[in-house]
């Protein structure tokens, strides 16, 4: 029970995932009325009030910079707890935690989990499953979404959060989605993807080039360290690049040249284009 209650690392996933919040939501909702008394071992965790200020803020949008603050605070709390245990072990002493405090904690946790489920609703009435978190150089954490997945829909349907009408909307949306296979009258775990063939790989679209001043300048200067233009007018990344680390090495090298300002401005954008087009 204490693991379920004090697993505060799950709270940070509120803006990142839907499966964990949906599953925990179902468990915690049932646990509020069953707690009689609880004891916790020292060392104490950092109070969550330092991270979660008040229930009135739950419905506010969490900004990218705030995500980084939450991530750092939870990481520091876990690190402090781990170092305390490794250095001094467990004392064996117990402290009483009031039932009202536990109930208040569970209540606000549920509100954050509900908020997480809500903001992960897609426009097509399905729900995002796993999301990608990127820690940016400007001390922010950005979120990007993956394609629809069956797992996310199962999680939200079994969370006990949705009303009957909302659950029906999800089921109808699933039937109309790329997850549904009419020939088998069943569902795929994730949609079938048309992957690029060998010839189509590593071809950078003109639209992608136009989003980066760095790439445009490299093309204008006929600098082929990162990309080059073939006889058909198509652009390609350096064929010697095995992965993003090779691209990063060249970007670092170019940062000490006349491209410094453009490198600082477009590094993340170029890496993103590389990962998408490669």
Short description:
The chain has ten helices and eight strands. The chain is mainly alpha-helical and 278 residues long. The strands form four sheets. A two-stranded antiparallel ribbon has the order 1-2. Strands 3-4 form a two-stranded antiparallel sheet.
What would you say this structure looks like, in words?
The chain is 46% helix and 10% strand. With 278 residues, the protein is mainly alpha-helical. Among the domains are: 2-122, no CATH class; 206-277. The protein has a two-stranded antiparallel sheet with strand order 1-2. A two-stranded antiparallel sheet has the order 3-4. A hairpin with a 5-residue loop joins strand 3 and strand 4. The chain is flat.
Please give the order of strands in the largest beta sheet.
Answer: 1-2
Number of strands: 8
Low-confidence stretches: 1-20, 32-48
Largest sheet: 2 strands, antiparallel
Q: Which term fits the overall shape?
A: flat
Strand proportion, as a percent range, falls in 5-15%
The DSSP helix count reads: 10
Keywords:
278 residues, two-stranded antiparallel ribbon, 46% helix, disordered N terminus, mainly alpha
Layout of secondary structure:
Layout lengths: L1 H5 L12 H13 L6 E4 L22 H25 L5 E4 L1 H21 L11 E5 L5 E5 L4 H8 L6 H13 L3 E2 L4 E2 L18 H5 L2 H8 L6 E3 L5 E3 L6 H11 L5 H18 L1
Antiparallel strand pairs: 1-2, 3-4, 5-6, 7-8
Helix pairs in contact: 2-4, 2-5, 9-10
């Amino acid at each position: 029970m204490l693991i379920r209650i004090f697993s505060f690392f799950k709270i940070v996933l509120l803006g990142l995932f839907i499966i964990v919040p949906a599953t925990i939501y179902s468990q915690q909702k049932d646990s509020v009325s069953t707690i009689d008394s609880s004891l916790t071992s020292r060392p104490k965790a950092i109070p969550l009030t330092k991270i979660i200020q008040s229930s009135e803020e739950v419905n506010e949008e969490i900004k990218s910079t705030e995500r980084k603050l939450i991530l750092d605070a939870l990481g520091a709390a876990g690190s402090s707890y781990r170092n305390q245990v490794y250095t001094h072990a467990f004392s064996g002493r117990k402290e009483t935690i009031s039932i009202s405090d536990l109930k208040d904690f569970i209540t606000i946790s549920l509100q954050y989990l509900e908020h997480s489920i809500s903001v992960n609703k897609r426009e097509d009435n399905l729900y995002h499953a796993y999301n990608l978190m990127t820690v940016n150089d400007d001390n922010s954490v950005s979120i990007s979404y993956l394609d629809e997945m069956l797992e996310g829909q199962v999680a939200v349907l079994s969370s006990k959060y949705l009303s009957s009408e909302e659950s029906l909307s999800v089921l109808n949306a699933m039937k109309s989605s790329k997850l549904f296979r009419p020939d088998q009258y069943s569902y795929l775990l994730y949609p079938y993807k048309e992957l690029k063939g060998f010839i189509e790989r590593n071809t950078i679209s003109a639209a992608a080039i136009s989003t980066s001043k760095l790439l445009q300048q490299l093309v204008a200067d006929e600098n082929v360290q990162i990309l080059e233009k073939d006889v058909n007018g198509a652009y390609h990344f350096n064929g010697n690049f095995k992965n993003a680390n090779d691209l990063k090495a060249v970007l670092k090298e170019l940062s000490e040249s006349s491209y410094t300002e453009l490198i600082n401005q477009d590094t993340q954008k170029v890496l993103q284009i590389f990962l998408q087009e490669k």
